[in-house]
Amino acid sequence: MKSSGAKIWLEGAIAASFSMALSFIPLDVGIGFSISIGMIPVIIYSFRRGFLAGLASGFVWGLLHILLGKAYILTVSQALIEYLLAFACAGFAGLYASKIQALVKEGKTPWLQMLLGVILGTGIRYIWHFIAGVIFWGQYATWGLSPVAYSLVINGTNALLTGAATFIVVLLLVKKSPNLVLPK
Ligand code: 218
């Protein structure tokens, strides 16, 4: 049966709140480094419901950071870029949804497509954090680095750690429960 719009939105809100709960687990090192394990629910939801739904769920997840006082806000434009635009872009993982679902229905584990989806969603999200890092966080640059190099080190490291952790957990979850990515 085709899912109703309301069910798709409700699942997206649930995924965003799971992600937000994970964002409260402190995995920060210093001012810039952090592993964002909240990517896990929003990425699984994006594999289940696709690109546009994934964008919406990621957007809500980012908005929750602001509403719940979990955001590092320097200026209005920085908050918009890092907490609405960047988080929404996690939904780019959903561009692989139909390929992933087709393979799961054949009884396969679509590890390569999930890896590519995680790379896309995490990569595009952290490109925005990199850009914001250069524009807004340059004053915190240390180790004698220029703002560009500093932002690349911080956000490149965060993207790699976040992408690796997300991929491993999503792979294990989908292996155990393939129905997570098959919408009912
Ligand atoms: C160089 C630098 N430092 C800090 C930030 C802020 N930043 C980075 C990554 C992720 C997030 C969202 C919350 O986890 C934020 C606010 C930056 N962009 N660049």
Description of the molecule:
The protein is an all-alpha fold. It has one domain (3-181): Arp2/3 complex 21 kDa subunit ARPC3, CATH 1.10.1760. The protein is built from seven helices and two strands. The chain has helices at residues 5-23, 39-49, 51-67, 76-88, 97-105, 111-136, 147-176, and strands at 28-29, 33-34. It has a two-stranded antiparallel ribbon with strand order 1-2. α1 packs antiparallel against α2 (39-49). The structure holds ligand 218. Ligand 218 binds next to α6 and α7.
Short note summarizing the structure:
The protein has helices at residues 5-23, 39-49, 51-67, 76-88, 97-105, 111-136, 147-176; strands at 28-29, 33-34. It is mainly alpha-helical.
CATH topology: Arp2/3 complex 21 kDa subunit ARPC3
- Termini distance? 7 Å
Strand order of the largest sheet: 1-2
Could you describe the largest sheet, including whether it forms a barrel? 2 strands, antiparallel
The hetero molecules present are:
ligand 218
Shape: globular
What is the CA-based Rg, rounded? Answer: 16 Å
* CATH architecture call: Orthogonal Bundle
Task: Write down the domain tally.
Answer: 1
Secondary structure tally, helices: 7
Beta-strand content: under 5%
User: In CATH's first tier, which class applies?
Assistant: Mainly Alpha
If you average the pLDDT, what whole number results?
96
Helix content: 55-70%
Structural class, by secondary structure, is mainly alpha
| SSE ordering | HEEHHHHHH
Which parts are unreliable, with pLDDT below 50 for 5 consecutive residues or more?
A: none
Q: What's the total count of β strands?
A: 2
